[in-house]
Amino acid sequence: MGRGLGRSLVGGDVLGRGIAMAYLSVVALIPLAAVVFKAFDGGWDTFWNAISSPQATYSLRLTLIASLIVVLINAVAGTVIAWVLVRDEFPGKGIVSSLIDLPFALPTIVAGLTLLAFYGPDSPVGINLAFTKVSVVMALLFVTLPFVVRAVQPVLLELDGEMEQAAESLGAGRLTVFRRIILPNLLPAILAGGGLAFARAVGEFGSLVLITGNIPFDTQAASVFIFSQVESDNIIGAAAVSVVLLVASLLILLLFGWLSRKALRHDQ
Amino acid sequence: MSIVVDSVSKNFGDFVALDDVSLNVRDGSLTALLGPSGGGKSTLLRVIAGLEAPDSGKVLIAGSDATNTPPQRRNVGFVFQHYAAFKHMTVAKNVAFGLTIRKRPKGEINSRVDELLKLVHLDGFAHRYPSQLSGGQRQRMALARALAVQPRVLLLDEPFGALDATVRKELRAWLRRLHDEVHVTTVFVTHDQEEAMEVAEQIVVLNHGKIEQVGSPRDLYEKPANDFVMGFVGPVTALSERVIRPHDVEILSEPSDGVAEAMIDRVLHLGFEVRVELTLGDGERTWVQTTRGRVEELELVEGAIVWLRPLDQTVLPA
Amino acid sequence: MISKYGLRVVALGYLALLLGIPVALVFVNAFQDGIGAAWDAVTTPEAQHAFYLTFVMVIVAVPLNTVFGVLCALAIVRQRFRGRALLNTLVDLPFAVSPVVVGLALILVYGRRDGWVGEWFADQGIQIIFSTPGMILATMFVSLPFVVREVIPVLREIGTEQEQAAATLGAGGLQTFFRVTLPAIRWGVAYGVVLTTARALGEFGAVAVVSGRLSGQTETATLFVDNRVQRFDETGAYAASVVLALLALVTLLAMNIIKPKEAKA
Lengths: 268, 318, 265
What we know:
The structure holds 3 protein chains of 3 kinds.
Chain A: H1 14-39, H2 43-52, H3 54-87, H4 93-99, H5 102-105, H6 108-119, H7 133-158, H8 162-169, H9 174-203, H10 208-211, H11 222-231, H12 235-267
Chain B: E1 3-12, E2 15-25, E3 30-34, H1 41-49, E4 56-61, E5 64-65, E6 76-79, H2 91-101, H3 106-119, H4 135-148, E7 153-157, H5 165-182, E8 185-190, H6 193-199, E9 202-207, E10 210-215, H7 217-222, H8 227-233, E11 237-239, E12 242-244, E13 249-252, E14 260-270, E15 273-280, E16 285-291, H9 292-298, E17 305-310
Parallel strand pairs in B: 3-8, 3-9, 6-7, 7-8
Antiparallel strand pairs in B: 1-2, 1-4, 4-5, 9-10, 11-12, 13-17, 14-15, 14-17, 15-16
Helix pairs in contact in B: 2-3, 2-4, 3-4
Chain C: H1 4-30, H2 35-42, H3 45-78, H4 84-90, H5 93-96, H6 99-110, H7 118-123, H8 132-142, H9 145-158, H10 161-168, H11 173-202, H12 205-211, H13 221-230, H14 234-264
Helix pairs in contact in C: 1-14, 2-14, 3-8, 3-9, 3-11, 3-13, 6-8, 6-12, 8-12, 9-11, 10-11, 11-14, 13-14
């Protein structure tokens, strides 16, 4: 079985796959396992105490709520932007479209600095959002911008106008067409992009450090809390909250992935 | 180089692709593997090439056992239905590939490539890329590429399947002429009986992983081994539970010995041929092929009663 | 009823306020004391070392992740083995892990005090955490998935026929790989490399944890920016950011050039 061409077909050998799996383990899997082990190094009690400390709980709540808000805003803004990029024409559209990927390409610390420049104490227009919870949301919005846009764009491109025209010929107004025809078709993509955005947001660090001030019990996100715990040598505490973040990200990705697939099946 | 397939079986999971298949292909011959989709012909070809390993049985090429030899060393040329062109290489580099990896001297490679491109009428296209070629041209390039290393055997897997009808017809004739010139043992797979009949010297009919019959085109048509072969290789119609060729039924306007009575349902004029659909006395429906001349001669119209007599040209053993 | 122009204004306005203006402002601020001052700020020994360190991390992490990416993609697409779907999912892990957790994870394995293998390395005299190797590992972790993700669909697309053809023409495994497979997937690999490089360049959180942030020694370009802000050296921070932003724009350019070729292949 699989002999004949098996070994001579490129990529068909066990060596390549062994190397790949070993590399993955060394670089990523084993280190992550170490975090999980450390989190429970002092037993379940220590773990529980660490994640239920007031500061930890606050930071986790802040992160989750802020990320949720960001996903909701992205769902709307991302769809609108994708719509404009696909259905509208204006000079410079190509450049704008390319710039959507800027948050992917730009270091997060620089992203934070750009926001600090415009929305911080030295703002040229006098808006100072630094050290507020709003700044947390803003930073997360910056880094998660491309996810929903890039997920929705190809789906919008594929949608030929025929379904909408059919609906209009049957008497549907524009809003109805959007609600009943377009949106259901975009929903799987919005959910998929939203899931990725959520997972990214809960773990975000670099863009937050400058503009939020990292104030405990105020604007300190979970990732920043973990960082501070590492710096204060409270390793188990850091590991414990890390495990919570990891589990949250994975659950979110699973949940949104499931929702997205469910929405897809609805169409078929 | 002759090919011998000895009791080869191949399963894909539960699916039996080849069931104890044995076959002899004469050196220098042009053979077609004919059959419906899923019948096993492509699998058999790929087993001969070494692209699939048989579960049991042997493959001998030029008398030596090649069953455990990988395709690299069998020296068989293979042409794929969808060309498998190396898209990132020019036509010339595609054709040269086999020679390049054997590290032949550049001069030799260049002259061989030129020679082959002329042979397949693609001289002038040497520096184009496959994406700039039509389907037919790509397939000719694929053929040149396969021939470049002077294979002992040339295998083609539905080589014209992806091309449109006119190009197909051209390339069929062209393959026949090429074989006349190059004389390499050639086996090709097709599901098109017209193609097999037109091109091959010997046809192997495969169905459900088994060989139904091996023979010349004429043998298959006039002396089919069973219903399946008869039906696959040419048109058939039924007359009193006998399967018969529709042009082997005579239409008479008066009863006589050994005839069946029938009423004409429809007369279809399909160009030169005319197809007459009838209902027999027992309610069975059948059809017969005849000519325009005959239709006029007998004044065949809907509703007319006629008598049908089978001519004993192609009749299956009872 | 929201008109077409209304939507356009909302979309462009959102992008301008969130992205466009802040980024543009960084360029303005960098040169507010003149080009000379900006240039000086990014050519101090500290700054140069920071960019050099970033360069080192990229030059090590990207090729390694590229080789891994191609091997992994080949295994996932071309082979059937138990755990294939799992491998496919695990490759995406770095997307779900916060950078600071990455840093923590590496400390737990390679830290000299209680690290799983850290003590052994320390005995050999090799320092990983608070030193370049640790930062390289952090960079490798976070930029791991990109080549795999980009190559997998391309591999699926091209199928195996070209490689089968090469086999019948006498090419062995390696010959086929270098002459047929790799050229066929090259734009997928290229795009993946661009994304990997961008991610490696921009890494902050993981290296912040792992580096110890010793200025002039274990400070990357991104850490340098943070360092300058902490020391109220605005020009330095903005100027370094401009360099990084320009690199990001080059990345975007490369993405835009390569993406259509990847799609066409």
